[in-house]
Amino acid sequence: MKKLFFILFVGVFTFSCSSDDSSGPALSDTPQAKVEFDNSNFGIYKGVFIGSSGTVLININNDGFLEAILKIGGSTSIYTSTETATLNSAMAGLTFTNGSNSFDFSVTANGGDPTVSNISISGHPNATIKVLKEFHNVLAKVYLGSYSGDDSGTFNVVIVDDVINGCAGSSESGTVNVNGSYIGTSLTGTFEGGGFSGTSSGNRISGSWVNDLGESGSWSGTRKL
Q1: φ, ψ for residue 22, nearest 5 deg
Q2: What is the pLDDT of residues 26-63, one digit of tens each?
């Protein structure tokens, strides 16, 4: 009986370890952003990538350096900048590079309206990046997902406090900006020519969409950053 119990225990323990490994690395619930940069251009900006699908983290001297980490389709790339950023000053077109790949980052002096432009990444034509600023007490959460129904494609958003920003689209229909609000566990928002609604549960978000043509369907996403 003891031998049988030991075999069963080892089997359960091994299964549990395998299940944990398959779930991937744990997501942090602690913001990286530092309190002294909450109202400045410095700090952490997180967001989404479409043109494939992925996450973006931009570090503007939050830790004393300029760096961006892009995770696209399972591949991680680190971008750096040789330019200079000045605290509490607007930045227009700060260039990040990784080999021949590059993009420009702009933001106001107080960290508002962060924008990524002039994206040139090999293998990802017509790419779009949307980011929001993280705060020391408000975590930026990035979700990657898809939509389906009368149309189908990628649905990626970043949520900070009650603000939703992101993009959705496909190679056939093109890319549209996604904007909305997040209150409690409810998400509502719009995109060009339509709208969406849904709920959150743990690290998952899901809901439905409809456009002005009468087309509709569902969408869902999983937190990845």
Answers
A1: -70, -15
A2: 899 999 999 999 999 999 999 999 999 999 999 999 99
Q: How far apart are CA 72 and CA 113, in angstroms?
A: 23
First and final C-alpha spacing in the chain: 46
* Cβ burial 92-106 (10 Å sphere, 16+ → b, else e): eebebeeeebebbbb
pTM beyond 0.85, yes or no: yes
Tokens of 109: 């002096």
Spell out the residues 6+ positions from residue 139 whose beta carbon is closer than 8 angstroms to its own. Answer: 28, 29, 30, 31, 160
Task: List the chain domain ranges.
Answer: 32-136, 139-225
Decide: 41 and 85 in contact? Cβ < 8 Å.
yes
**DSSP state for residue 100 in the 8-state scheme:** T
Q: What amino acid is encoded at 165 in this protein?
A: N
Cβ pair 112, 39 in contact under 8 A = no
For CA atoms 107, 70, 121, 164, the dihedral sign is negative
Give the model confidence (pLDDT) of 104-163 as tens digits: 999 999 999 999 999 999 999 899 999 999 999 999 999 999 999 999 999 999 999 999
C-alpha span between 141 and 134 (Å, rounded) = 9
Is the CA virtual torsion 71, 72, 78, 83 positive or negative? negative
- Cα angle: 155, vertex 190, 48; to 5 degrees: 35
With vertex at residue 10, the alpha carbon angle to CA 5 and CA 16, rounded to the nearest 5 degrees, is: 125
Question: What CATH architecture applies to the domain 139-225?
Answer: Beta Barrel (2.40)
